[in-house]
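User: My advisor, Dr. K., asked me to get a structural model of this assembly before our group meeting. I'm new to this, so sorry if the format is off. These are the inputs:
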Amino acid sequence: MKKRILFIATGGTIASEVTSLGLKPGISAGGLLRAVPAISGLCDVDCLELYSLDSTDIGPEHWLGMAAAVRENYASYDGFVISHGTDTMAYSAAALSYLVQGSRKPVILTGAQKPIGFDTTDSRVNLLDSFICACAESMHGVMIVFNGRVILGTRAEKTHSKSFDAFSSINYPHIADLRDGRLMQYITPEFLAEPVFSRELNPRVSLMKLIPGSDAAQLEFLLSRSDALVIESFGVGGLPRGMHAAVHALARAGKLIVMTTQVQNEGSDLAVYGTGRPLSEDPLILEAYDMTTEAAVTKLMWLLPRAATQEEAARLFYTPVNRDILGTA
Ligand code: ASP
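Assistant: The format is fine. Below is the predicted structure of the whole assembly, which you can bring to the meeting.
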């Protein structure tokens, strides 16, 4: 029997048209499907026009909207494909990994670097590959399908701004390849008997990327407007001397602070250098280790409404979800 897939459109380049003001989303979900006739031979598809946005304009309220679309239709479909702009797709995939946990049914995000109407485009192959994955019995949970690669929703980062090879899987292997419509899967994601849906996020999370000369006043400003802060420090991790006291004090004042690295591969290890060791020894300061920044930011948004204490926040942060964190040492 043919699988039933819900196609949720949110906009992005894949659905964009040329306008005098630059590329803008304008093509409907049905229009996208009509451009790839092979999909209707593969499965039965219903369309949901959720948003028509450049993903630069997508934020936490839209992640809740996407999660609600999956939740409200979960019983009626075998899988979900979400078309999405590439710019913030990695954030949306990470957020959905926390909002829709343990799903046996695949929830696939995809998009393209070139619009579906262009002569040269990655739109059609990415869409077809996504529906192939959405129909596969062995695919579970939230993932990105792009340029012939399947990446767990918590592990993706956009690593090329123009070429078709837009996404990489960071600190974890991609779980499958697709070549000419054939799925080669190496890793099977876990799932629960029933998915766990969350309906709340706290968007008061900030990100600070250190530069030489960053100071405590900048950090205090960000935390005056946020409940949690991810600090992308240098290398395996550390802070300039002048910022340590502020970080310890703000953690004691109830702010959640996560140290990570701005280096894309291999993660943080705060304990290595004198500039990081005192932070690693403070139980109120968290460390992202091998997590992506996208996962750390969205996990904080998800756990803030759930954690009554900083100890509970730490426990939730370090509990793996969709293989977002491998190790804490
Ligand atoms: N600016 C576009 C977006 O994120 C880029 C893309 O989709 O590739 O919506």
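One thing worth pointing out at the meeting: The domain at 3-197 is CATH 3.40.50.1170 (Rossmann fold).

User: Perfect, thanks a lot.
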